[in-house]
Amino acid sequence: MIVTGAGQGLGRAFALDLARRGWHVGVVDIDGHRAGSVAAEIGQHGATALPFACDVSDGSQVEALARDASRDLGPIVGLVNNAAIFSTLEMGPFDDIDPAVWERVIKVNVTGVFLMCRAFVPHMRAEGYGKIVNISSATIFTGRPMYLHYVTSKAALIGLTRSLAAEVGASGIRVNAVTPGSTETGIERATITPEQRQAMAAATALRRVQVPSDLVGAVGFLLSADSDFITGQTLNVDGGYAYH
Description:
Order of helices and strands: EHEHEHEHEHHEHHE
Shape: globular
Strand content: 5-15%
CATH architecture: 3-Layer(aba) Sandwich
Strand order of the largest sheet: 3-2-1-4-5-6-7
CATH topology: Rossmann fold
Helix content: 40-55%
Radius of gyration: 17 Å
Number of helices: 8
CATH superfamily: NAD(P)-binding Rossmann-like Domain
Number of strands: 7
């Protein structure tokens, strides 16, 4: 099992939960120190995890990751594409977005997922089985303003998910997406105040702030045998904010 962006936030939560479910987890992050810390945390609970430093937007690094992870963890039949640029982004009108920032967001959030799938699908084909979960965002349903680069990148993942599912299904590989709502991950963000987060929570059907533990079950389900006849789908997990 590979989880990208697993050194903090949602990725860390996914890695910890999947290890508890019995997966041997490759904890992948651009920051190798963070990846090592999460892998060590998993090891303290008696599960197996190995850290890998990788920039998912760099094709050569991704190819090396696929080679090393399959060597050290065994056959890779599970992949969670979680790595993304978000918390460091500044909100603002679309015509104020620096084209260089736009390109970096697309390169990590979209091209990074493409490169990861391109590198790991052959391993899944060899096993005749595989599960890929792409982490999109519920902002694609509401068209959240002032985040055009981010929302565009996450919307692209839905098209990628559907098309790839149709292409690799005959090889026994399932590809699905999850769209989280605004989640309190502990990662600092200058673009949302505690008051704004509470207001967003109040607008959901469940009337509370979303936390990482609200998402791990959905991801775990899509990676389990219980979802073997589900592919090309998008599961929205936002407490009833956007109905899809």
